[in-house]
Amino acid sequence: MTTTPQSGLADNYGRVATDLRVSLTDRCNLRCTYCMPEEGLDWLAKPELLTDDEIVRLVSVAVTRLGVDEIRFTGGEPLLRRGLVGIVERTTSLQPRPQVSLTTNGIGLARQAEALRAAGLDRVNVSLDTIRQDTFQQLTRRDRLNDVLAGLAAAHAAGMAPVKVNAVLMRGVNDEHAPELLQYCLDHDYELRFIEQMPLDAQHGWDRSTMITADEILARLSEQFTLTPTDAATRGSAPAESFTVNGGPATVGIIASVTRPFCGDCDRVRLTADGQVRDCLFARKESDLRTALRAGADDDELAAAWRTAMRGKLPGHGIADPSFLQPVRPMSAIGG
Ligand code: SAM
Ligand code: SF4
């Protein structure tokens, strides 16, 4: 389907969203310090959560009526959602068939990778910030490194290539180990991307002056590897700046959401686990689709409401602006 600004999810700045991130739960079995507090976070109540059928219905509206061609399931931790395999299977059966991927912390992936692959899952991004057991425990507050590494290996064995790894660096915790993480990924044929830490943690602990910047990551990696920028012209709306490592073919990516924002090329839209459309990670406004859905709206009405929701998308996230305010929902509840 060709997406025109009339039929697709166009905003007032000429961007058209075709990449939908769907949060399947706000719950998680880790407590990464840059994302969640140790305890005290309120969970969405069960009746507020979209059912599996409701998720598939909204995804289907996005794919068949709004030109969305990429679906990424995320959370919280999406592997905690019992109906995940069925949701993936029904999504990959849609026509036109969207690309379907998963962002996960990898815990439980070893058990589910084959079934997810059989359901049509195309790709997986696994979050892994360190390969050191003690540092992993310090960052995630849980002793689950071996489960994550097993999940990565299972995804690779199941043929979900390329297996991507997402890493966030925290000063004084794992920043100095970035080269060792890259070497591990090179050795295991995983594609590593570093993500700059963003102000999206529930406890509002982000500090611009202490976050590790893309420039620092590059400098640190360049001490041990030869990094060469790949053609920027092929980047398109992809957020990662990509570099070949030691002449290639392996690459490493850096997602500089804070220091080099890519809002002008953004093609994303998000759906929370409780059925709210968010036009940006940093949006302070959401549009409720669940109420209309449960009141019996038909697909055309849902599509129209979704299009309207996108019109208010701001040109940029404004993190550098002194008046920037963090969104009320943390990353774990928005869907990263
Ligand atoms: N639980 C899954 C996981 O960790 O991959 C999916 C949800 S998680 C919110 C999605 C991604 O957001 C992860 O790669 C995580 O590292 C990243 N993330 C979480 N909080 C972040 C923050 N404050 N800044 C940058 N990335 C963050
Ligand atoms: Fe859980 Fe992912 Fe947040 Fe870590 S980043 S606490 S794994 S939702």
UniProtKB/TrEMBL annotation:
The keyword Iron applies. Its cofactor is [4Fe-4S] cluster. Binds 2 [4Fe-4S] clusters. Binds 1 [4Fe-4S] cluster coordinated with 3 cysteines and an exchangeable S-adenosyl-L-methionine and 1 [4Fe-4S] cluster coordinated with 3 cysteines and the GTP-derived substrate. SUPFAM superfamilies: Radical SAM enzymes. One of its GO terms (biological process) is Mo-molybdopterin cofactor biosynthetic process. [4Fe-4S] cluster 2 binds at C263, C266, C280. Residues 12-238 form the Radical SAM core domain. One of its GO terms (molecular function) is GTP binding. Pathway: Cofactor biosynthesis; molybdopterin biosynthesis. CDD domains: Radical_SAM (cd01335), Twitch_MoaA (cd21117). Keywords: 4Fe-4S, GTP-binding, Iron, Iron-sulfur, Lyase, Metal-binding, Molybdenum cofactor biosynthesis, Nucleotide-binding, S-adenosyl-L-methionine. GTP binds at R21, R72, T103, K164, R268, V269, R270. Belongs to the radical SAM superfamily. MoaA family. Monomer and homodimer. Catalyzes the cyclization of GTP to (8S)-3',8-cyclo-7,8-dihydroguanosine 5'-triphosphate. PANTHER family: MOLYBDENUM COFACTOR BIOSYNTHESIS PROTEIN 1 (PTHR22960:SF0), MOLYBDOPTERIN COFACTOR SYNTHESIS PROTEIN A (PTHR22960). This is GTP 3',8-cyclase.
